[in-house]
Design a protein that fits this description.
Layout lengths: L2 E5 L15 H13 L3 H4 L2 E3 L5 E3 L1 H9 L4 E6 L5 H11 L8 H7 L2 H6 L35 E2 L1 H12 L4 H11 L4 E2 L1 H9 L3 H9 L7 H6 L7 H11 L2
Parallel strand pairs: 2-4
Antiparallel strand pairs: 1-4, 2-3, 5-6
Helix pairs in contact: 1-3, 7-8
């Protein structure tokens, strides 16, 4: 397969190509091609026997937008329709990932953005950037009333409607359980309630994850789950 130089009007866009670039990204591609057209010589557009694009549909569109009169192509001959479709998809698959720390050491961030790269917000690409922020409540002088720890208005209304309905009793049981999701917990008052309770009540509150006193135990009981990246940092921070 040889690289050929042809008139841009001889190359046909592929209307069935599922890959597209829109708005700002496309404008950056046009600008990149106009400023650095030599890239097209080493990355020609791939076409089939009928001069329909198999790889480089958006580059062709950007070349047309940029006013180029000729483009470099490689003709991929004698492909079946299934192979053409497979080529189009595989040509657009991105297998790698950018190492942004390394990239930003060698290149100006604004240039990279101008060239069409999506730079994550600062530190968002780090595995772990800061410690987990857990709210800490300072107990008041008085123990809250247990009735104030939850808001049952929505729950009670649902249960009332369920009980008064004419549906099957098994359905009622299920829906009453589902209605429990609508109980609202006031965790600031719950933390206060915990601080003024005896050891037995406190243990049961911990086992229900109403308060998190022991982070390791919360993980053990399954109330807190760590991603693999955070888990590595957590283990590293704790020295084991």
């Amino acid at each position: 397969m040889n690289i050929e130089r042809v008139k841009i009007g001889d190359v046909k866009m592929n209307s069935n190509n599922p890959r597209t670039i829109k708005n700002d990204k496309f404008n950056k591609l046009v600008k990149s091609i106009k400023e650095f057209p030599e890239m097209l010589e080493v990355r020609p557009i791939v076409v089939d026997d009928d001069m329909i694009v198999l790889g480089g549909n958006m580059r062709l569109k950007a070349c047309i937008e940029g006013g180029l009169e000729e483009v470099s192509i490689i003709k991929f001959n004698d492909l079946s329709e299934d192979k053409k479709k497979e080529f189009i998809v595989k040509d657009n698959v991105g297998y790698g990932e950018w190492d942004f720390d390394l990239l930003l050491k060698d290149w100006n961030k604004d240039d990279l953005i101008d060239w069409g790269l999506d730079i994550p917000k600062e530190n968002s690409y780090d595995e772990y950037t800061k410690k987990i922020d857990i709210p800490i409540y300072k107990p008041s002088d008085m123990k809250p009333l247990s009735n104030d720890l939850t808001d049952l208005e929505k729950y009670n209304g649902l249960v009332k409607d369920i009980n008064e309905s004419n549906i099957d009793e098994n359905d009622k049981t299920f829906l009453r359980l589902a209605a429990l999701r609508h109980i609202v917990f006031n965790y600031e008052l719950i933390a206060d309630y915990y601080a003024h309770s005896n050891k037995d009540v406190q243990k049961l509150m911990e086992d229900s994850a109403l308060v998190l006193i022991d982070f390791d135990r919360a993980i053990e009981l399954g109330f807190v789950k760590l991603t693999e990246n955070i888990k590595k940092q957590f283990i590293s921070d704790n020295g084991n």
